[in-house]
Amino acid sequence: MTIRVLLADDQALLRSAFRVLVDSEPDMEVVGEASDGAEAVRLTRQERADVVLMDIRMPGTDGLAATRMISEDPTLAHVRVVILTTFEVDDYVVQSLRAGASGFLGKGSEPEELLSAIRVAAGGEALLSPAATKGLIARFLAQGDGDDNDPVRSERLAALTVREREVLVQVAGGHSNDEIAERLEVSPLTVKTHVNRAMSKLGARDRAQLVVIAYESGLVRPRVE
Asked: Tens digit of pLDDT for each residue in 120-155?
């Protein structure tokens, strides 16, 4: 199956570089390019994209607003958004995760990392594994909007079983299914089942939103360094 990728960035040179890289892979293709958020949303629908590489800072409708529009559209439930950032606007990155993005990646990443990110996102996983990324998410979620937790999501946690809570804590730590399985001494398939059930009960699109819920509900507290 070919992964259909949409590029959203106001810099034509960057889009061209990403296109060459993506189109060089046998399992993916660029189906469109957008220079602003509104165009990104339109082309995502029109070209039936699977993964959108979304810049945050764009003229008009920015990447944050576009991500929210995509994630809130039921007809685009299969679409995964990967935020591309210079790591200078990490607060926007966290807002994007809250808006429904599946993760984020630095623009200075190696080509192999970008290609891997597309495959990971298309597979429904979250791009939250690097330690630095997890630290950024934890730090900015800790700042929050002035509230210690989200009471609605805290209440939803009551629907989770003890094991599902344990798995959610591990997911929030950025661990893969294999790592969680080893830590909890169960099979990776069992972990995947618990993750899917937690996503269903909490109304999360993917693992990235599970991480946000875990922090915002107060189930997991960021470490203060």
From this structure: 888 876 665 444 455 556 555 555 544 455 566 567
| Burial readout 13-47 (b: 16 or more C-beta within 10 A, e: otherwise) | eebeebeebbeeeeebebbbbbbbbbbbbebbeee
Tokens for 95?
């807002």
Neighbours of 200 (CB within 10 A): 10
Backbone angles phi, psi at 78, to 5 degrees: -85, -15
C-alpha separations of 74 from 15, 45, 69, 78, 115 in Å? 27, 11, 10, 9, 27
Residue 169 CB-half CA count within 13 A: 13
> Of the given ranges (17-21, 60-64, 175-179), which has the lowest mean pLDDT?
175-179
Provide the 3-class DSSP secondary structure of residue 203: coil
Tell me the three state secondary structure of residue 71: helix
3-state secondary structure of 81: strand
Tell me the C-alpha distance between 92 and 32, whole Å.
24
DSSP state, 206? S
CA distances from 55 to 34, 64, 126 (A): 10, 9, 17
The residues that bridge with 55 in the sheet, in sequence order, are 84
Q: Quote the pTM value.
A: 0.73
